[in-house]
Amino acid sequence: MLKAIIVDDEAPARSELNFLLDETGEVEVVAEAANVREAIEKLRDVGADIMFLDVNMPGANGLQLADALRKLKYPPYIIFVTAYSEFAVKAFEVEATDYLVKPVETDRLLKAINKVKQLIAAQGRSTANERIPVEKGGKKLLVPANKIHYIMAKDDYSYLHTENDRYLSTVSLAQLESKLEPLGFFRVHRRYLVNLSCVEEVDSVSGGTLLLTLTGEEEKIPVSRRRAASLKKALGL
How does residue 129 score in pLDDT terms, banded at 50, 70 and 90? Predict the structure, then answer.
């Protein structure tokens, strides 16, 4: 699931966009900000794949922030959400991914989100080349992403499960999700990230949740009710 920060000086506008994003099931809003200074602080604290950004705000405006973020090595994708259509040209001059005019419709919002997902996938490396740093027996190792069946978060650590072993990683599950989602991994639960290519069986259980059976794994992986529909779509079910 993509991580997003909403930046708008009007609280009702932030709430409305938060609601629409929750409805899509594709984006998790990890922070909100009312101005540019707060946006920079939130981005530094929690990180994000996307920043939904208003143009007119007190102090520095959204266009100035987007221009400044281009200097980062890995800037978030910028989607402007504003009541003013006349800034669209300037928005794309600062490399915005999309430009939405309020009131935002869900279908149009989904198109913008899918554009970000396509860009992430296009810029991502293949699972054969991607390797994750881990620790095992006091040694530092690199595990190929395509060998990972699932990842489980526990306290401040993550545990990577392969066919025959388990490895400790000090990288957070959120960071691993950002790196691995374009490579076919899916966040099925707040504690679990799953390699979709390893899913062999999907069982429905009470309350709208699911249980996954993965290749070579005895443990069943839970899928939260909130993520169940999106997972089925990702698996073509």
Answer: low
Cα(147)–Cα(157) distance, integer angstroms: 19
* Residues 45 and 86 occupy one common structural domain: yes
Please tell me whether residue 94 adopts helix, strand or coil conformation. coil
**Angle 93-98-102 (CA atoms, 0-180°, nearest 5)?**
115
Q: Which of 104, 123, 142 represents a domain boundary (last residue)?
A: 123
Number of domains in the chain: 2
Which residue range forms the structural domain that includes residue 137?
131-235
Domain end: 123, 158, 184, which one?
A: 123
Q: How far apart are CA 173 and CA 20, in angstroms?
A: 25
β pairing state of 27-33 and 2-7: parallel
CA distance 106 to 21: 8
Among 25-39, 68-82, 171-185, 196-210, the range with the most confident prediction by mean pLDDT is: 25-39
Q: Are residues 62 and 142 in the same domain?
A: no
- pTM beyond 0.85, yes or no: no
Tokens 């080349």 locate to 129
Tokens of 80: 């402007």
Q: How far apart are CA 34 and CA 160, in angstroms?
A: 37
